[in-house]
Amino acid sequence: MRKALVLGSVAAMAFGLALAAPAGAATGDTVVTFTVGSTVPSVAVVGGVWTPGTGTSTTAVGTIVGTVITDTRIPAVTTTGNWTDVVSASSFDMVGVTTPAVADGTRIAPSSATIWSDDPVVTIPGTATVTNDHPSSTPLTLASTTATLLHASTKNPNISTFTSHVSINTSAAATGAFLGTITQTVS
């Protein structure tokens, strides 16, 4: 039996809190800007857009297209700046269920999902050296706590753009639409 699975707001970006999307939303595109450190460096994250893919009866797949990390910090000449993109996920809950639970298939745990990224494209003016910790050969199992997706060593301001891919095991899920959030934070 095939199961229909709709994910909304999977690409939501947040710093310190997850931003809830309206019920039934099929895409998430959130811009978050914040200050890091005492010398007022700034890192801005523009969230990608969730694009559902063609899954199977036991797997939902999709991509988070166009995540952009803009690092406007200007480190001293003798130092380098670094940034790390970490990711976490909420549970994926069946839409309309008041008390979803894994046991009855109305909740999918974050650990049922994996994420991996294409190598980022670093655009001028930066000289960032980005390490993709989780390419397709070593996907990251998601959790409610953060884990590093990729990181960079930088010498001046830079912009990095990348696409991430998500696969969610739905074999124990009930038939219906699900909503969850994948959060990326850069520091």
Description:
- The protein is mainly β and about 190 residues long.
- The protein has one domain.
- Helices cover about 0% and strands about 45% of the residues.
- The protein is built from no helices and 15 strands.
- Strands 1, 2, 3, 4, 8, 9, 11 and 13 form an 8-stranded antiparallel β-sheet that branches.
- Strand 3 and strand 4 form a beta hairpin.
- The chain is elongated and about 55 Å long.
Q: Which structural class is indicated by helix and strand composition?
A: mainly beta
Quaternary state reads single chain
**What's the alpha carbon Rg, rounded to whole Å?**
17 Å
Q: Fraction of residues in helices?
A: under 10%
Terminus-to-terminus distance: 43 Å
Strand content: 35-45%
What number of domains? 1
Strand tally: 15
Low-pLDDT parts are 1-43
Q: What pattern of helices and strands is seen along the backbone?
A: EEEEEEEEEEEEEEE
Largest sheet: 8 strands, antiparallel
Overall pLDDT metric: 73
Total helices: the number is 0
Gross morphology: elongated
Quickly list its features.
four-stranded antiparallel beta sheet; mainly beta; 187 residues; eight-stranded antiparallel beta sheet; disordered N terminus; 0% helix; elongated; 44% strand
List the helices and strands and how they pair.
Blueprint: E1 31-35, E2 42-46, E3 49-52, E4 59-71, E5 81-89, E6 92-94, E7 107-108, E8 113-117, E9 121-123, E10 129-132, E11 140-141, E12 147-154, E13 158-169, E14 178-179, E15 182-186
Antiparallel strand pairs: 1-2, 2-4, 3-4, 4-13, 5-12, 5-15, 6-7, 6-14, 8-11, 8-13, 9-13, 10-12
